[in-house]
C-alpha cells in the first residue's frame, strides 16, 4: 500500500487517459468519474472508490494500486482553485489509515468528486 504520510505526490493534473491503467480493476457496475496524473503516478476516481497508482522501478512496469473505498471515509475537505491560485486540494480521513491528501493543478472536478463522496457519507 502507498504510504500516504511519506509519499510526496506531485501536483496531479487531469488526464483522462490515465484511467486505462485501472480498467482491469473495475467492477461491472463501476464507472470512472475522473483521472489525474503526475509524471508517473496518478489517481482515478470512480463512483465507488479512489484508486491511487504508484508506478515503481526504472521501466515503470511495476505498479502499486491502492483502493480507497468511499464507505471508509469519516470526513473530508476540499479546497477549490481560485482566480490566481489555480491549485486545489482534497484531504480525506479514512477510518483505518488516517489522512490522505491529494493536490491538484489546473482544471479539476472537485465539486463533482465532493458530491460523490458526500453521497456515501450522508
Automatic annotation (TrEMBL):
Residues 15-120 form the Bacterial Pleckstrin homology domain. It comes from Shewanella litoralis. This is Bacterial Pleckstrin homology domain-containing protein. CDD domains: PH-like_bacteria. Pfam families: bPH_1 (PF08000).
Amino acid at each position: 500500500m502507498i504510504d500516504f504520510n511519506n509519499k510526496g505526490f506531485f501536483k496531479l493534473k487531469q488526464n483522462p487517459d490515465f484511467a486505462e491503467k485501472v480498467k482491469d480493476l473495475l467492477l461491472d457496475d463501476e464507472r470512472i468519474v475522473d483521472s489525474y496524473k503526475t509524471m508517473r503516478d496518478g489517481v482515478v476516481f470512480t463512483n465507488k472508490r479512489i484508486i491511487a497508482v504508484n508506478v515503481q522501478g526504472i521501466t515503470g512496469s511495476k505498479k502499486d494500486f491502492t483502493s480507497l473505498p468511499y464507505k471508509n471515509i469519516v470526513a473530508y475537505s476540499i479546497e477549490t482553485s481560485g482566480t490566481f491560485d489555480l491549485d486545489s486540494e482534497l484531504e480525506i480521513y479514512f477510518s483505518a489509515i488516517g489522512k490522505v491528501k491529494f493536490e491538484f493543478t489546473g482544471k479539476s472536478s472537485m465539486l463533482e468528486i465532493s458530491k460523490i463522496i458526500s453521497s456515501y457519507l450522508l
